């Protein structure tokens, strides 16, 4: 069997191609001159470090197919651990610790890891919450420092220590796998429901690397500063240097933009990924201090719709680069992409009038369809009603990086996946397998056959325009089915966000049946929330904006909230369902036509 499908094979290939080029740089303090002091490993050194991790894991009894819960710091430990596990044929399980203790422990229990590869705090947690970690048989301790290497002695869990040397003899070979072998389980953020483990196959990772490289023209030798740790795992395969940002991934909103800008300038960073929230802070810092970032060729933003104003601000500080927004989800990424020039020159005006947010053309090899909205499973593509151009419905996608199943959640898989029948009109015989190794996901539903494909239901709503571009209108779970027809978040909120006093807004459903639409506003100034006269003034002015558009004119109830609940991963996705629960019993402001007249008189 060929080992060509193993995603880990890219690292030794890059180590042979550019052995002395920096692979990873981890901040460890400041130089005498005030610059950032980095621990730097070349591609050859990172390859040797990964082999040392493989040897250590094998010596502890970690086998191909074992599920390994990875709880390490971003930087060298995360990159080395992930590639070592891929190379060994084990399955890393990566769960966002910021999702909250209850959800995190539920994800651990459901994923049933045999191995815990973690820092001392994680190991302690595994003993405190034994029920969730009951499947763990092997514990491998890792230092809590982002610059430390694998601890050589499990008996001294707090020691940093040097990495074990690369085993004598030829470099360790990658475990032989096929495209369809399970590579990793990555968990969704759970922003509109319970977090779910997404089963990634080696072939899917390979397709992602290829699509990201080709879509954005990324070349070996570039320098990346990834502000979401999981994206650092693509870089060794792309031949990019990873500069680890000085950022707490569990609290991204607390980022100091000066530290990010300093790293970009010092290391001549060419590429960076982050949420719109992070890049808004960085752009404002740069504009306030008359700073540009000439080394950056591209900025990628995802996790939430990117406002046109942010695209405009970024283009002011990127004299040699372009801002892009790739669209996708944990289950399928990338799906489509749009650039700042296209937004600013073509689509921003439509977004401002309630047409939704354009997320661009599908990337190569990705197929997109819009189907009629339903909240029930769709077994076969033949059972879905495809909608014409311009009509809003559910977005479904198919392609080589579209995942096929959720781990241990057959009901969720059935709701999210649509099977394309094989030539006999039946699911593939692969779907009926009953006995699989521990590392393999439950594939009882949603496995594509050689003559079929799996379509993923993104849980998003949108439409395709006449140019083939995809427009995002909001999450299906967050639509408001009013008595006068549906309202969609991305067609409503930009109308209210146009007010200079609004930081962000959220469409919610209220009333006993959830059918009455309301808008929740987070003002720019906290004083507005605390001052009755300022509250009433803002509500009147928002009513004027809403009355200018037929769909928002139907919204007559407004709430003010001091600080929206958002996801931890991107600090950008608004928890609208949580806001709807918050609004129950709260005082809202009723508006009618008289508010428009009163606002006009005051002007």
Written account of the structure:
The protein has 603 residues and is α/β, with parallel strands linked by helices. It folds into 3 domains: 1-220, Rossmann fold (3-Layer(aba) Sandwich), CATH 3.40.50.12780; 362-474, Luciferase, domain 3, CATH 2.30.38.10; 479-602, 2-Layer Sandwich (GMP Synthetase, Chain A, domain 3), CATH 3.30.300.30. 30% of the residues lie in helices and 23% in strands. It is built from 17 helices and 26 strands. Strands 1, 2, 9, 10, 11, 12, 13, 14, 15, 16, 17, 18, 19 and 20 form a 14-stranded mixed beta sheet that branches. Strands 6-5-3-4-7-8 form a 6-stranded mixed beta sheet, with helices on both faces. It has a 4-stranded mixed beta sheet with strand order 23-24-25-26, with helices on both faces. Strand 19 (454-464) and strand 20 (470-475) form a beta hairpin. Helix 2 crosses helix 3. The model is unreliable at 151-168, 427-436, 443-451 and 597-603 (pLDDT under 50).
Measured between the Cα atoms of the first and last residue, the distance is 76 Å
Global mean pLDDT: 89
What structural class should be given to the helix and strand makeup? alpha/beta
Might you state the CATH topology name of the largest domain? Answer: Rossmann fold
Kindly provide the radius of gyration, computed on alpha-carbon positions and rounded to a whole number of angstroms.
25 Å
Strand content: 15-25%
